[in-house]
Recover the amino acids of this structure.
């Protein structure tokens, strides 16, 4: 029987390995050494590497980010973890005015090897201030790297290489991915060079671009559509700072159709950039107008009753694709994709309270 | 000042409401992160006893007690936890975003320390409008680690605003004890004094002490003597977020937990009540109020998804 | 002889008028009442309305923003001014987690009438941390309004209506606009309803979209191109939260060509959103692939020697347009657009030191 | 400790460099915002006298004196102001972003208080690497209003980091006096004490006093007694940003300005110098050094625009 690994454990493994490989490495964040170990992702680190290298911190996100940057400038390798991306809004000055610009404005004399893990909440009443994905903000700022993982197979590789990178990297984890598993066999080695933009599923009818949890939904939709004779190419844009545009351009040249799925608000988003770039560069290769899916332009409400359609799911993706391709299939054709159980949890294992 | 029996009754009511939330949480119908105030009721009740409807209150993630003590509707609270249309924010905010404008409870927010500046802004409005009311910010000792707290206190003192800062020092921020977050020789009171605030440090489980201190603070504030910071030492009985006890995790010393449970604010007040005080009758009436609140909440409708686009802009 | 008004004075006038009309209004910011009056834009306010309503503040951008929001919730109307947008990065938590969401997450029960003036620096060695325009960040966040003025004619109207709006509004002023003038005759009344998206120059060959200082460059380019027989339609997207898409769509239907000029980094930008939207909605109306201009993806360097081509100017716009339209005109054809004098100042009146 | 004549000489050198910048600024070849330290040289020189090359320094927008006193190259400073390739950041950063790693001057930054956490982070690195060096943050009294200052100090004390905080209290933030920014009864020293730091308050225009205090502070820090905050009272002579005097604007009381000009740190030191000390000879040598720095800067090339894409990523 094949053994399986899960996403949270892989994240944990990458951290252990990195700390082992670089004895200068420090890791800190609120609750990093607490009994729950940040959804299990940091369990055992403090024990293995001691409280000088792995430590809890005051609730002071702004200065603590600066302190991480300073330690990185000084020669430590730094990993910082925030239980929610939303809390990190307090530290934008340090991130943008210092970390992002340091290497550049000091003419290459110093570098800032800091990685900042940001966890995005969703569902179970996370609500307006515990469920924001601001990947578009980070991607807009020159000098930052932004990695948004989706798959258990390569998340350890992605995190390890983010940590070992000598630049500031935002590592944006969706909370609903933590329990995802894969066969240990399929896991990519930590050292294997990153594919910044990866074709996860080949297809010839339409190019579907996604990252984070949205990629899983896109893959589910693609599996289902295959049965209906629609062949989707699904591309993972995990590394937003360095999209391999030629992969996307070739795909459009092949398929002639594009759906971009954003895991944040649809407008003024990373999805907009992808759609804009492909429109500029693949003009003449589109058979129909490209389309987008994303979150609506209001905050995530808290109530179970209000979040039903807040996140586009596999079914919505399938509908959008068949609509784009002018397929006659009705909504019902995609009902196999309907989520069973509650829409506000990733699975029945999730029981709150946060 | 309100008689002890009143204060006790209010604490009991809050306790029973929250215990019922805890009892029912595992039914998975209250689907939002929920931080119970059980063990800390004396602060909310004591402070509120000094406030009128015109005084405005802001709070944090742990706000149920502040909301109820200020006069927030229990029906709307429970309905909010259920995410129903009849909830205090119609299901938009959940447990971490309470509001009852009729009671002068402005808002609680879920980002540590970020409602403190709002409360100070409200006090600024009071000052420029010369209203004779005060603004109150409740927050935990963890929030005092945020720059927002420091900047807010500095400005409130600078402008001598009608502002009461209430710090509930329950010694923990989630699982983290004070010693990994604040210097051992740092006192919140001394810090506030150094900034120029008036201060009162007290036993936050002694409801009478809190009430007296709050009254005194309000008087001083309204005399224009500037903001007051009250540091109330207290303890939460249950886990940081959620309905259970979690002391099996071992993050709090056993002895400490036991000592504080003995100093339960309800127990401390109970022994001082007149012998004529009939707890049973009160419990019966509160229980029926609570039962009704839950029934109403369960029966109420979810807000309509069609309204999701409402109120994005005023 | 016609009298002229200048941009800074118009901003000043709008504030005076607003404070007069709403006696609850407060206005504060670092140096708001100092002898220089923030480039003259706040001169006389403290004197006219007293130090209770118009006041300087501690260097504490985060809490002061929250205090402004709190006062606005309580019933004051609030205007806050930052001498540089870059300083406001300290206040993203208050802006995004409180101001933007307040009305929504409290179900319409409260409102937040706060306007935040943010000034963008450029040139004279402003450098990496004094010259950022993060309009794309603000436009991405539901619940915010974002107004980016360009013209003396309507800047007072725009600011006045921003202030009188019951929602949080970011008002992003480019420092190089402050000395711009126009005839007093052409000034729009404060009360006239805003045109969120305005055709500033009609044309039939290409649609050029811009805002902020970039709009002036686009207009210069358009004037020049007209002489060469290229007729540009120039559209001002001053209100990023509420772009009137039908104005843009009709324009594309007419011209078949699009150039979007962004006044910030080109990628992951407002320009991307505009290009994406038009590609989705005007498919089939484009004669050629749409194009973009914007700032490069590195910070503004400080040195005079390094900023020469950092900001696309009228000449670059003209070149891009003739290239897009397949015109045979060479770079030299656009040399009349070359800036006279130093490239790092808006005019010879500008002498530093900041 | 270094002899007074050494300290004086260094102050004089910084003064003459900055005066020459001021003289030439109107030529409009130094095209960047420039904040002169004239009047505040004693702090930089006194503190630096206690530091070795291994001790690292971070500073703010007003950094020329800190940079030069720590041993930063004058040629690279002037070239940087001219935006030349030979500047200390090759023209990337300008006056507000200085760096001389050979001298242990890490960086100055242009956002108020935002280099303080960096310095603390450097101290954290020193502590975990057990290097026996200290990290220094210079900042103005305005920076103490920022939450970043407070949070940084809190963490440094919590971890007992090898950290020296140097506050130059020159009473103004741009045109704003202390009374519109900080409560009248607030002392930065008391605040730092309340947080648990060791503190020294002193006359920042007395270079010997500063040097002694810095030495004492460093000894204490290296003994593991935790961070020290020095509050140095001082005054800037010229406008906040730029080469001129601006007292005609009237934002500083005339008498105050006069009193402080009399207490010029150079004047205070000069009267204590031995009679054998020959100022003229020193001025001549410094002037030639400065003249050369300006000639080199003027003659140097601008960095190539083709390199604008370099160093975005390491
Ligand atoms: C800015 C920010 N950082 C972290 C969190 C996560 N968090 C939620 S509650 C909490 C504990 C705060 O402790 P304290 O202020 O003492 O309040 P208590 O829970 O003890 O009542 C933390 C860290 C948050 N909500 N916001
Ligand atoms: C966060 C931030 N806010 C405002 C400014 C504008 N500013 C530049 S220097 C300065 C004065 C700071 O005063 P202080 O710290 O006392 O230093 P000084 O200029 O007196 O040396 C201000 C407000 C800034 N650079 N950064
Ligand atoms: Mg606590
Ligand atoms: Mg100062």
């Amino acid at each position: 029987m094949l053994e399986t690994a899960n996403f949270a454990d892989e994240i944990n493994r990458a951290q252990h390995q990195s700390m082992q490989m670089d004895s200068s490495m420090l890791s800190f964040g609120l609750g990093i050494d607490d009994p729950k170990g940040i959804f299990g992702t940091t369990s055992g680190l403090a024990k293995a590497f001691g409280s000088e290298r792995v430590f809890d911190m005051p609730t002071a996100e702004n200065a603590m980010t600066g302190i991480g940057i300073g330690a990185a400038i000084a020669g430590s390798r730094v990993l910082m973890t925030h239980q929610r991306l939303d809390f990190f809004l307090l530290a934008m000055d340090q991130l943008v005015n210092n970390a992002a610009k340091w290497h550049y404005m000091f003419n290459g004399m110093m570098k800032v090897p800091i990685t900042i893990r940001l966890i995005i909440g969703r569902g179970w009443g996370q609500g307006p201030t515990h469920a924001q994905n601001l990947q578009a903000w980070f991607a807009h700022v020159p000098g930052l790297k932004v990695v948004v993982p989706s798959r258990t197979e390569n998340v350890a590789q992605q995190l390890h290489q983010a940590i070992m990178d000598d630049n500031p990297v935002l590592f944006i984890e969706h909370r609903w991915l933590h329990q995802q598993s894969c066969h240990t066999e399929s896991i990519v080695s930590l050292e294997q060079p990153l594919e910044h933009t990866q074709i996860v599923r080949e297809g010839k009818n339409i190019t579907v671009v996604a990252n984070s949890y949205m990629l899983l939904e896109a893959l589910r939709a693609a599996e289902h559509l295959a049965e209906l004779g629609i062949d989707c190419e699904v591309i993972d844009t995990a590394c937003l700072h360095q999209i391999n545009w030629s992969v996307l351009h070739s795909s459009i040249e092949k398929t002639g159709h594009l759906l971009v799925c954003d895991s944040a608000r649809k407008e003024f988003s990373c999805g907009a950039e992808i759609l804009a770039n492909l429109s500029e560069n693949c003009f003449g290769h589109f058979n129909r107008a490209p389309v987008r899916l994303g979150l609506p332009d209001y905050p995530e409400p808290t109530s179970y009753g209000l979040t039903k359609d807040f996140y586009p799911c596999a079914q919505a993706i399938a509908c959008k694709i068949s609509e784009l391709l002018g397929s006659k299939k009705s909504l019902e054709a995609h009902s196999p994709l309907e989520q069973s159980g509650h829409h506000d949890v990733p699975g029945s294992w999730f029981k709150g309270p946060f | 000042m309100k008689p002890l029996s009143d204060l006790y009754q209010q604490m009991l009511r809050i306790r029973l409401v929250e215990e019922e939330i805890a009892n029912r949480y595992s039914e998975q119908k209250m689907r939002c992160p929920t931080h119970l105030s059980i063990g800390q009721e004396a602060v909310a009740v004591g402070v509120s006893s000094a406030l009128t409807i015109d005084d405005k209150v802001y709070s944090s993630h742990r706000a149920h007690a502040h909301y109820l003590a200020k006069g927030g509707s229990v029906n709307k609270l429970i309905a909010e936890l259920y995410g129903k249309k009849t909830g205090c924010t119609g299901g938009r905010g959940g447990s971490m975003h309470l509001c009852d404008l009729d009671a002068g409870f402005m808002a609680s927010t879920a980002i540590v320390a970020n409602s403190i500046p709002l409360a100070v802004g409200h006090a600024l409005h009071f000052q420029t409008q010369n209203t004779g009311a005060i603004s109150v910010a409740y927050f935990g000792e963890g929030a005092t680690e945020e720059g927002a707290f420091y900047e807010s206190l500095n400005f409130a003192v600078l402008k001598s605003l009608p502002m009461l800062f209430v710090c509930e020092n329950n010694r923990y921020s989630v699982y983290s004890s004070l010693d990994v977050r604040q210097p051992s020789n740092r006192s919140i009171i001394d810090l506030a004094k150094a900034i120029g605030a008036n201060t009162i440090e007290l036993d936050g489980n002694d409801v009478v002490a809190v009430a007296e201190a709050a009254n005194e603070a309000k008087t001083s504030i309204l005399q224009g003597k500037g903001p007051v910071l009250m540091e109330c030492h207290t303890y939460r009985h249950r886990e940081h977020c959620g309905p259970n006890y979690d002391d099996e995790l071992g993050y709090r010393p056993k002895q400490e937990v036991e000592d504080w449970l003995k100093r339960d604010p309800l127990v401390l007040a109970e022994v001082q009540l007149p012998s004529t005080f009939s707890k049973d009758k009160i419990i019966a009436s509160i229980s029926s109020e609570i039962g009704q609140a839950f029934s109403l909440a369960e029966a109420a409708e979810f807000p309509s998804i069609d309204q999701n686009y409402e109120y994005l802009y005023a």
In short: The pocket of magnesium ion (ligand 4) is lined by residues D 140-142, 170, 172-173 (CB under 6 Å). Chain B has a mean pLDDT of 97. The interface with chain D takes residues 145-148, 150-151, 154, 157-158, 180-187, 190-191, 193-196 of chain B (CB under 8 Å). The first helix of chain B runs from residue 4 to 25.
